[in-house]
Specification:
single chain; 70% helix; elongated; mainly alpha
Length: 142
């Protein structure tokens, strides 16, 4: 198995070409090794690869699963990315209420993109009731 943190760091080195040639196949290999050991950052990074089809076949359902596992380990950016998938209905059934709840939690934990999405949700009544007052509060407090 190996050390998940080291495997994750090795994956990033292959991705960025730090100390070695860039290699998406090696990036994916080491991300999978670390993700199989429930390394939160590796699961989130691998999810991004699946969401956008970088180095792997695009698979938003697999991305959603990895984001969920990652945010359950405390990875707030993974929670925000999962919210986006629910908002857009990519890889999961579109669910604006679930997206709103995920954005709300991520936003409360400092994710600025989620805070912006909350403002839009309040403005448009997506997944929550429409509220210009809450929209203004969220936008101007971020």
């Amino acid at each position: 198995m190996g050390h998940a943190g080291s495997q994750y760091q090795l994956a990033i080195m292959y991705y960025e070409g730090e100390g070695t040639a860039k290699s998406l196949p090696q990036t994916i290999k080491w991300l999978k090794e670390a993700a199989n050991q429930e390394h939160a950052d590796a699961m989130s990074y691998l999810a991004i690869m699946y969401q956008f089809g970088e180095g792997v076949e695009k698979d938003c359902a697999k991305a959603a699963d990895l984001y969920k596992r990652s945010f359950l380990k405390g990875n707030i950016p993974a929670e925000a990315n999962l919210a986006e998938l629910y908002h857009e209905g990519e890889g999961v059934e579109k669910d604006l209420e679930k997206a709103f709840i995920l954005y709300l939690h991520a936003g409360e934990n400092g994710d600025v993109c989620s805070q912006t999405q909350l403002g839009k949700a309040y403005l448009n009544g997506e997944g929550t009731r429409k509220s210009l007052m809450l929209h203004t509060h969220v936008i101007y407090d971020t």
